[in-house]
Write a structure and sequence with these properties.
Length: 552
């Protein structure tokens, strides 16, 4: 053992002296370098693996939930990745599900219903199973539930109906499907259920079911739907109308198949209670006629075939024409002048009334503005249908038209039928009241047809009521009828509401209305509906006659 100057003893590991010390230091440095290099390679490897994993996620591959990173420097990244992947997968699956399903009922939405029906049709054809049957299901009188109980109750009712549709479909297999070899994979031939509209569901029954299969299924569905549904304190019984079409009759084309079922559903609505109809050749011809008429009306709007006629409203106190009702007519290229009774009901049934109604509003306001520039301050009345009334866009449209034509709001009167106004929702009444505050006159049309209670007039945003012509055209115009009219006018006066008597056709009716101080009259006794030129000429003649009578 060697001893240094200070008494320090150095062990003879490799020998003695300075060389041995340098060798020890060199070995320690080499070992440390190796450890550091392994750490660097580990970090680089983990970094590369992380980049590859992130690229895989970016491409939509979430198959690997774990990433085992060894470097302590990336431990936090590794843990975060482990939490991230299942969350991403869950979010992606939720987004994908929401894109394919109706949020309220959890059935397929309309687009995905079509996609799955087409796939089912193609698969059935590929497996020589024919096609299938399409059912178009509509819940009768659903709007009444919404109006009376509110949308929340309506939504709960729809969810219950959807659950019962699923229950009916759960065990369905057509006779042909049941005859397949046991053990065959029938998972792709389950019924397809989708929500097609507010209260409308589509059901596609695959496997080429025959009429008997479908009727058994419909009976089961009707039985389930008819069971009482408890919504709060209300027990509701649903009734449904079902249209049925077979794919073989529509060459396995989805759009035609659904249209056929829809057509049959409308036929079923004419039945009492819950009913169903199978699509047939007669309906095909009717559907073709409907399609032709729909196209004809749309073209008529585009080609300006519609026109307005005007029937004057006379103020009995002044004997002046102070207003007029704008009435639509169709100048048909082959049939001549067509009255509204021949196309308005069709337009309301087949969703054309909004287009027609917007045209009438636009034309009437433009006409009233044109008259104002000519010095004729005549109020113009426009009828609004119940379907138009429910549109959120209606009130903004009226305001925009008045502003565009610089027409004072008091020059416009909106006529709303008694039935529509009595049943409209609170939010709709508030919109009407806002329009009334703008200065637009609100008139209750067809008053006296049996829907209203006179006391309800207090709660309605009204300026005028129009007595239905049936009150004046009573076969004998009996004393009882006269008392009813008198009572209405007296109550209206106390409420500050003007009354317009429609359908005045003879002197007896006029004398009675003058005697009881009715405000305004309208009817064929004074004039039928006239073209604009004829109406302006009538106004000029009436003014001239009135002036002559006053100065005589």
């Amino acid at each position: 053992m060697n001893s240094g100057a200070g008494g320090l003893t150095i062990p003879p590991i490799f020998g003695s002296g300075l060389v041995d010390c340098l060798m020890v230091i060199a070995l320690l440095l080499a070992a440390l370098t190796a450890v550091l290099w392994r750490q660097v390679r580990s970090v680089r490897s983990d970094r590369d693996r992380l980049c590859i994993a992130l690229e895989r996620i970016e491409s939509g591959d979430y198959s690997d939930d774990t990433l085992d990173l060894q470097s302590s420097a990336l431990d936090m990244v590794s843990a975060a990745y482990g939490r991230m992947v299942p969350n991403i997968r869950s979010t992606f699956e939720e987004l994908e599900w929401n894109a394919c399903h109706d949020a309220l009922t959890s059935t397929l939405n309309a687009n995905n219903f079509k996609r799955q029906c087409v796939a089912s049709l193609n698969m059935a054809l590929d497996n020589s199973l024919g096609g299938g049957a399409m059912l178009f299901v509509d819940i009768n009188d659903f709007k009444t539930i919404n109006d009376n109980l509110g949308h929340e109750a309506g939504d709960r009712f729809l969810v219950t109906c959807a659950d019962r549709v699923r229950l009916a479909c759960a065990t369905f297999k057509s006779g042909k499907m049941a005859a397949l070899v046991a053990g065959a994979d029938l998972s792709n031939f389950d019924p397809v259920i989708g929500r097609l509209g507010g209260d409308e569901f589509g059901i596609f029954l695959p496997g080429n079911p025959d009429r008997g299969d479908v009727e058994k299924f419909v009976a089961k569905l009707q039985r389930l739907i008819a069971e009482p549904c408890q919504i709060g304190s209300h027990s509701l019984n649903a009734k449904i109308s079902i249209g049925i079409a077979f794919s073989a009759d529509h060459h396995n084309a989805y759009d035609k198949l659904l249209a056929g079922a829809d057509t049959a559903m409308y036929e079923a609505k004419s039945l009492i209670g819950s009913g169903y109809r199978f699509y047939d050749e007669a309906m095909r011809n009717k559907a073709d006629l409907i399609l032709d008429r729909e196209l004809e009306i749309r073209q008529a709007i585009q080609q300006s075939q519609f026109t307005l006629h005007f029937q004057p409203q006379i103020n009995l106190a002044t004997n002046q024409i102070e207003g007029t009702e704008a009435l639509i007519r169709w100048n048909h290229p082959t049939r001549g002048l067509v009255g509204p009774n021949e196309f308005i009901p069709f337009a309301e049934t087949y969703n054309l009334i909004d287009d027609l109604g917007d045209w009438v509003l636009t034309e009437a306001i433009a006409t009233a503005a044109r008259w104002r520039k000519q010095g004729r301050n005549i109020r113009i009345s426009v009828n609004i249908s119940p379907k138009q009334l429910s549109r959120v866009e209606l009130i903004p449209l009226i305001r925009a038209l008045l502003d565009f034509h610089k027409l004072p709001a008091e020059a416009l009167e909106i006529e709303i039928t008694e039935a529509a106004l009595m049943r409209c929702e609170e939010v709709t009444r508030e919109r009407i009241e806002g329009l009334r505050r703008d200065g637009v006159t609100i008139a209750l049309d067809d008053f006296g047809t049996g829907y209203s209670n006179l006391a309800q007039l207090l709660a309605l945003p009204l300026d005028r009521i129009k007595l239905d012509r049936s009150l004046l055209t009573n076969s004998s115009f009996q004393r009882r009828t006269r008392l009813v009219v008198l009572s209405i006018i007296q109550l209206a006066r106390k409420l500050g509401i003007n009354v317009v008597a429609e359908g005045v056709e003879n002197e007896e009716q006029l004398r009675f209305l003058q005697h009881i101080n009715c405000h305004f009259v309208q009817g064929f006794l004074f004039s039928p509906p006239l073209t604009e030129t004829e109406f302006l000429e009538l106004c000029a003649n009436h003014e001239a006659a009135h002036t002559k009578a006053v100065t005589a």
